[in-house]
Amino acid sequence: MTSFDKAVLHFARLDPSGLSPKAPGTAGSFFSVLLAPFLFLPFSLPVRIAILVAVFVLGALAATRAEVLLGRKDPGCIVIDELVGQWLAMLFLGSFSDASTWRDAAFLLIPFVFFRIFDIWKPWPVHASESWLPDGWGIMIDDVFAGLWALLCTVLVHWALNSFCPGLLSL
User: Fold this and answer.
1) What is the distance in angstroms between the CA of the first residue and the CA of the last residue of the chain?
2) Of 29, 63, 140, 165, which one has the fewest beta carbons inside 10 Å?
3) What is the pTM of this model?
4) For all residues of the chain together, what is the average pLDDT?
C-alpha cells in the first residue's frame, strides 16, 4: 500500500473515529461535531457551502478508493460521509464567539442527535439515494439527505428556542 493510499484511508476513516470497534458512524459523527467549531462554524455561509462541496467530492473519491483498498462495498469504517451530513445539519448555525456559553456547545448535540436518527432510520430519500450513484458517491449522498433532514429539524428547534427563550443561545 502506498503512502497516498494510507493517507486516503486516514481521511476516509476520519481517523481515529472510523476505527472505533463499536458504532464507527456515531463516532465519526461525534468527531465531526468536535471539529465543527474550529473547521466549519467560524466561516461564512458561502465558505461553509464550499467546504461541504469540497469534502463531498474528496470524500466520494476517497471512499471509492477505500472500497478498493479494503476489498468490500461501503465498509463501516468509512465515516467521511458522516462529516458531510453532520456539518450540513449545522449549516445555518452561527459561530462561537466571546458571548458563547456552555448552552451553545450543548446545542451542538441537537444536530448530532437529529443526524444520527435520520442516518439510522433512513426515511425517503435517504435509503433510496444509496443506489442513485456508484461507488463512494453513493456512500456520500445518503448522508447528504440525512443531513438535510437534520438541518430542517435543527433550524426548527433553533427557531423555537430563540422565539420562546430569547438570548438563550448566541449561535
Assistant:
1) 44
2) 165
3) 0.94
4) 95
